[in-house]
């Protein structure tokens, strides 16, 4: 402790008196000249400890309290500081003022009855147990503030700061103030103490007032002038440091910095501190739910926080924190909003996919429709409080469902309109696809094998180009070509069957000569079914060769109608039988479990039934077994050619339960016989109805048939009957 006192005693101490225009409102206007703010900013420079309002109108009790202590001066305390890069010094600061009675609005009576000008020039100040002043709120509540007394109850003033307010003070004439200051200076000069002129409130300074104040200082033995702003904390230390240098000539001469240059430096310092503080806030605060109390405690040790609070104060630090939190909140809300709006098209597609249902509805009207949908709660949630972004729902875990009031926003209305437009466009494109297909069907210019490049100019119109993309109409055209080519090939095969005599004279296994092919093409050349494959000559020639091969090698593999030929249909009929006959369970049935029994009726007149039965038996083994794809069947055939009402021609007998029926025809008369027989059998039998049997209607094309009926006509008649019999 002793060493500390000795070391502390080496620090030079200066007592500074701050003076300037004081008195009643009539003398100084509605506000002071800034003496208190200047002292406050120097002694307690931290923004949180700086107070703008310091009243000089006091009650008698406040005036008599230990802070004012019945004096017309305030003791602001002491401060130890290095001024202008010099060694440390201690400064005691007092402010000479004039306190006004809040009842009489006249100066309070005190022990010193001198006028302000004489009293302010006093160099010996004494006031026993006078307390250090903080702010107006301290008066009457001294016990709530630090209680530090003026040392030894007395001070010897070393120099004066003479304040001149250069702002446009209310109800104050600047020239009158300058006259008062001039008289005050004359009184101060008698003390032989150093004087520095301090221009206060330069942040609101009037250029003429500043100029006149400088002229005044120049006229008074070239006084030093410092332009300050206590509110902006500009040049305050410079003013006190300049006076200290005048008191102690051993200290380096102080460089006077103009106000605006100093303001620029101060602004840059604040801006840099603000940037660092904002960086700290962004690093520490990641959630919009953070509170100032918790975050400020966390940031308190950080120099970025301390520097900014020192310069700008806790309220501004809190304001920046709240702005950051609000920004995080808005970003969070915006992310949620984007999520909801991204889900909305899917919800509309799921709930109202039908254009006819909503084409006439506005966005506001469609909301009632949506609420009535069964899956409404899967996509939407109705909140008790709205809008959703102003409620606690922003932090709800239910982010998969859209708050229903989102539908009332312009963005949702745009998405609904886009949904409508998409449905309308889809309908229009579907209409265009149908119209394009119809154009293809109706156009005589679209023939089998015609390339799209040749057909385009006959088919396309402006609407097709507008509504259909190239891959779409190319796909439709390709499928259409596939259909008409298959149809043309089938019709060409029918044509070849009709002209069977052209192929009788060819040698077995021999490829037809060029001359023979020429004859065939010449005979068929006038037929429209031949011309239809004009663009596909290679395929047409291949069909001719395939037909020739079939004529001399008539198997199911070489049949042009495969899999619709007789052999294939018989195999299909056998393979698709769903139920086994009842006899399967009888004791006298076949003992071999790997053999199935097939009972087949063959119906046809004029020997057709017997002929096919013989051909099928020729394909069987010696014991009437028929093999299909490795599966063996025991085959029992019942050919019928007469009246089915006679027992001898009945479909079913006590020992024969049919599993299927092949119906053969080669003329109009034989087809009529098949139809009549099916109908008679159905009418005469209630159980095991033949209509329940699998039926296959088969056209038998005999070579050299002189009946005069064309094969094409018989095919058409057979198709009509097959449709009637559902076979």
Automatic annotation (TrEMBL):
<dbReference type="GO" id="GO:0012505">
    <property type="term" value="C:endomembrane system"/>
</dbReference>
<keyword id="KW-0175">Coiled coil</keyword>
<dbReference type="Pfam" id="PF16512">
    <property type="entry name" value="RhoGAP-FF1"/>
</dbReference>
<dbReference type="GO" id="GO:0008361">
    <property type="term" value="P:regulation of cell size"/>
</dbReference>
<keyword id="KW-0343">GTPase activation</keyword>
<dbReference type="GO" id="GO:0007266">
    <property type="term" value="P:Rho protein signal transduction"/>
</dbReference>
<dbReference type="InterPro" id="IPR039007">
    <property type="entry name" value="pG1"/>
</dbReference>
<dbReference type="GO" id="GO:0003924">
    <property type="term" value="F:GTPase activity"/>
</dbReference>
<feature type="domain" description="FF">
    <location>
        <begin position="485"/>
        <end position="550"/>
    </location>
</feature>
<keyword id="KW-0547">Nucleotide-binding</keyword>
<feature type="domain" description="PG1 pseudoGTPase">
    <location>
        <begin position="592"/>
        <end position="727"/>
    </location>
</feature>
<dbReference type="InterPro" id="IPR027417">
    <property type="entry name" value="P-loop_NTPase"/>
</dbReference>
<keyword id="KW-0677">Repeat</keyword>
<feature type="domain" description="FF">
    <location>
        <begin position="429"/>
        <end position="483"/>
    </location>
</feature>
<dbReference type="Pfam" id="PF19518">
    <property type="entry name" value="RhoGAP_pG1_pG2"/>
</dbReference>
<dbReference type="GO" id="GO:0005096">
    <property type="term" value="F:GTPase activator activity"/>
</dbReference>
<keyword id="KW-0966">Cell projection</keyword>
<dbReference type="InterPro" id="IPR051978">
    <property type="entry name" value="Rho-GAP_domain"/>
</dbReference>
<dbReference type="InterPro" id="IPR032835">
    <property type="entry name" value="RhoGAP-FF1"/>
</dbReference>
<dbReference type="GO" id="GO:0005829">
    <property type="term" value="C:cytosol"/>
</dbReference>
<dbReference type="GO" id="GO:0042995">
    <property type="term" value="C:cell projection"/>
</dbReference>
<dbReference type="GO" id="GO:0005525">
    <property type="term" value="F:GTP binding"/>
</dbReference>
<dbReference type="Pfam" id="PF23083">
    <property type="entry name" value="FF_RHG35_4th"/>
</dbReference>
<keyword id="KW-0963">Cytoplasm</keyword>
<dbReference type="GO" id="GO:0050770">
    <property type="term" value="P:regulation of axonogenesis"/>
</dbReference>
<dbReference type="InterPro" id="IPR036517">
    <property type="entry name" value="FF_domain_sf"/>
</dbReference>
<dbReference type="Pfam" id="PF00071">
    <property type="entry name" value="Ras"/>
</dbReference>
<dbReference type="InterPro" id="IPR057284">
    <property type="entry name" value="FF_RHG35_4th"/>
</dbReference>
<feature type="coiled-coil region">
    <location>
        <begin position="413"/>
        <end position="440"/>
    </location>
</feature>
<dbReference type="InterPro" id="IPR001806">
    <property type="entry name" value="Small_GTPase"/>
</dbReference>
<dbReference type="InterPro" id="IPR045786">
    <property type="entry name" value="RhoGAP_pG1_pG2"/>
</dbReference>
<dbReference type="InterPro" id="IPR002713">
    <property type="entry name" value="FF_domain"/>
</dbReference>
<protein>
    <recommendedName>
        <fullName>Rho GTPase-activating protein 35</fullName>
    </recommendedName>
</protein>
């Amino acid at each position: 402790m002793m060493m500390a006192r000795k070391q502390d005693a080496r620090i030079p101490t200066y007592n500074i008196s701050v003076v300037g225009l004081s008195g009643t409102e009539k003398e100084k206007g509605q506000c002071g000249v800034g003496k208190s703010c200047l002292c406050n900013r120097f002694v307690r420079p931290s923004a949180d400890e700086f107070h703008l309002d310091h009243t000089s109108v006091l009650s008698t009790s406040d005036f008599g309290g230990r802070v004012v202590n019945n004096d017309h001066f305030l003791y602001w305390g002491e401060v130890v500081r290095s001024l202008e890069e010099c060694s440390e010094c201690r400064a005691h600061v007092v402010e000479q003022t004039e306190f006004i009675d809040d009842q009489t609005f006249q100066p309070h009576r005190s022990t010193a009855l001198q006028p302000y000008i004489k009293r302010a020039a006093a160099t010996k100040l004494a006031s026993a147990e006078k307390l250090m002043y903080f702010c107006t709120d301290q008066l009457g509540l001294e016990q709530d503030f630090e209680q530090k007394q003026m040392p030894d109850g007395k001070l010897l003033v070393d120099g004066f700061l003479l304040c001149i307010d250069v702002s446009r003070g209310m109800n104050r004439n600047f020239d009158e103030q300058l006259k008062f200051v001039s008289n005050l200076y004359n009184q101060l000069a008698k003390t032989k103490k150093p004087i520095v002129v301090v221009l206060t409130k330069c942040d609101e300074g009037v250029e003429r007032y500043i100029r006149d104040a400088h002229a005044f200082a120049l006229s008074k033995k070239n006084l030093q002038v410092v332009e300050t702003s206590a509110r902006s904390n500009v040049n305050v230390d410079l003013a006190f440091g300049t006076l200290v240098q005048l008191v102690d000539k051993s200290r380096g001469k102080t460089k006077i910095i103009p106000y605006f240059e100093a303001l620029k430096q101060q602004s840059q310092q604040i801006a840099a501190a603000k940037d660092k503080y904002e960086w700290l806030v962004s690093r520490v605060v990641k959630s919009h739910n953070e509170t100032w109390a918790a975050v400020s405690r966390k940031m308190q040790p950080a120099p970025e926080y301390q520097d900014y609070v020192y310069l700008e104060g806790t309220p501004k630090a809190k304001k920046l924190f709240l702005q950051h939190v609000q920004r995080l909140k808005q970003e969070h809300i915006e992310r949620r909003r984007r999520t909801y709006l991204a889900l909305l098209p899917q919800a509309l597609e799921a709930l109202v996919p039908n254009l006819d249902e909503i084409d006439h509805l506005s966005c506001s009207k469609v909301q009632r429709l949506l609420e009535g949908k069964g899956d409404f709660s899967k996509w939407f949630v109705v909140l008790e409080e709205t809008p959703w972004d102003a409620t606690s729902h922003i932090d709800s875990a239910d982010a998969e469902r859209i708050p229903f009031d989102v539908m009332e926003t312009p963005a949702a209305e745009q998405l609904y309109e886009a949904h409508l437009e998409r449905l309308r466009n889809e309908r229009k494109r579907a209409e265009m696809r149908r119209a394009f297909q119809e154009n293809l069907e109706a156009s005589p210019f679209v023939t089998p094998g015609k390339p799209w490049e040749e057909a385009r100019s006959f088919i396309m119109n402006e609407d097709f180009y507008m509504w259909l993309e190239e891959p779409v109409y190319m796909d439709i055209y390709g499928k259409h070509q596939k259909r008409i080519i298959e149809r043309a090939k089938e019709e060409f095969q029918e044509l070849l069957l009709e002209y069977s005599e052209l192929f009788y004279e060819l040698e077995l296994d021999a490829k037809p000569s060029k001359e023979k092919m020429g004859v065939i093409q010449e005979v068929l050349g006038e037929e429209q079914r031949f011309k239809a494959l004009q663009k596909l000559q290679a395929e047409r020639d291949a069909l001719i060769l395939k037909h020739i091969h079939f004529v001399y090698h008539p198997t199911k593999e070489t049949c042009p109608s495969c899999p619709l030929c007789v052999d294939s249909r018989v195999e299909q009929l056998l393979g698709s039988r769903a139920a086994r006959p009842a006899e399967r369970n009888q004791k006298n049935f076949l003992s071999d479990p790997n053999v199935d029994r097939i009972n087949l009726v063959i119906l046809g007149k004029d020997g057709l039934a017997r002929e096919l039965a013989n051909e099928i038996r020729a394909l069987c083994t010696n014991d009437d077994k028929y093999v299909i794809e490795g599966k063996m069947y025991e085959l029992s055939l019942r050919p019928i050619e007469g009246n089915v009402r006679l027992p001898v021609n009945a479909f079913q007998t006590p020992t024969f339960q049919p599993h299927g029926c092949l119906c053969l025809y080669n003329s109009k008369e034989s087809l009529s016989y098949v139809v009549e027989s099916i109908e008679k059998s159905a009418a005469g039998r209630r159980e095991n109805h033949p209509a329940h049997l699998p039926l296959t209607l088969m056209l038998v094309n005999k070579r050299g048939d002189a009946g005069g009926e064309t094969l094409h006509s018989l095919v058409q008649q057979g198709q009509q009957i097959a449709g009637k019999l559902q076979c």
